[in-house]
Amino acid sequence: MATGPAPRGWSRQFLAGNHELMMLGFLKKPKANLAWLDFGGTETLFSYGLKASEIEHIRRDPARSASLLKSYVPEEHIAFLEGLDTGLAYPGLLLVHAGIRPGTPIAEQSDLDLTRIKGEFLDSDVDHGMIVIHGHSIVKFPEVRPNRIAIDTGAYATGVLTALRLAPGQRPAFLQTGAGRAA
User: What is the biggest distance separating any 2 CA atoms in the chain, rounded to whole angstroms?
Assistant: First the structure.
């Protein structure tokens, strides 16, 4: 989470991805959303200070874990997650975590489409009426296609974090850092 105000003349926009939505589901209904623990949840709970024994207790008795979770995860973090959008539209662009369901109007896309879709979106050459900027599906190098731009270079596994700079009238510019690579 960003700290401090955005630089002067800038604003910050944060988007939810599948892991953020999974975390919210887990915090609201641990028993129904235990799978999150195997998809980054355990590491996230460690980062909040939970011990391995406490996480094991949550796995054994998730229904009685709500108060334990609330004692570690600050309300302002939960409020931040709850306030995240799953998509951000600009003229000719849509920024999402994973992609969109091809052929489905943007207004009818579900949060699951925007945060989890893979093959159907990645394999599509359909004109979406805008360029979709996305992550979620790891690529070795950023991909620029007529209908989408993929920027997820798997920072958690590769150490390479990629950002995209877009400016009217200019080609997309990629910024990378980590693992000895800069572009």
Answer: 56
